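From the pipeline queue, job 12 of 40. The input is one protein chain; the requested action is below.

Action: predict structure.
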Amino acid sequence: MLPTTIILRALKGDPALIQAKLRVLLAEANTPSRVIIDAESPPLQRFYLFEDDALSAAAKAYRIDVEMWAETLFAPLNAKGERFSLEYIWNKSSLVERLAQAPEAGQLILFCLEASLPSRYRRVIEQSQSPVLVLGENRWHHPPNLVVGIDPFHKSDRPADIDAKVVRTAMTLSKRLKGQLTLVHSCYTPSFMIKYRAMIQSTHQRVIQDFVAKHHLQRLNWHLLLGEPADALSDYCRTHQSDLLVMGLVARGLIKKRITGSTTDQLMSERVCDLYLIP
């Protein structure tokens, strides 16, 4: 099993909640995890440019606070042996560059408390070749409610097997977490096609039924959502108090740069639950 890389913003978040999620997600991990503490603090990066004793002392105190916070956070998780190695980013060095220096990770866990992901975290996700868990401060239910979103209609700009891969990953995680998994797909009818709405919805429903039958998913609950994909998924997850939404990342564009699709991008801009993004 490949190691997990974890990114945490320094001095942010409820330590007990972070520990609880990591215990659940890494319960079966047999390899050490790499932890990157994002401790960039622009106001304290200038002390080396000026002879300012107060600013220098403040930067030193900040480093001590961050290191104590991180060590205290991971001490209980390391109780049964060294599992987490800590490293720190103190300046504007790129997270993407730091991640590129390490061996391939099995998955990336990104803790972010902001409702909208900062641009530096988006770049990390866009360039990741590994699954990315985007976690916030919402507490999961017991058992957790998982939702997996698919879009079989976009075969021209998505890898052919991405939806099957996403569902398989979601099912494996749901089984490990002893969670409840629901499959969803969104059907949007533009206003100029409103007279064909019934036919469009029927076509979408048939495609989902074919997907379920092809991949032997008859035991999986599924729903056809109506509306713009990002809005429909957000509304569903909010209404059903979903804990984790599993979706795919796609490759688009002439140079095939890996970027997030428009739906995923919108969901990252206003998260209603945690996300698991599968490349």
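Job complete. Helices lie at 15-25, 53-74, 95-100, 119-127, 162-177, 197-214, 229-239, 262-269.
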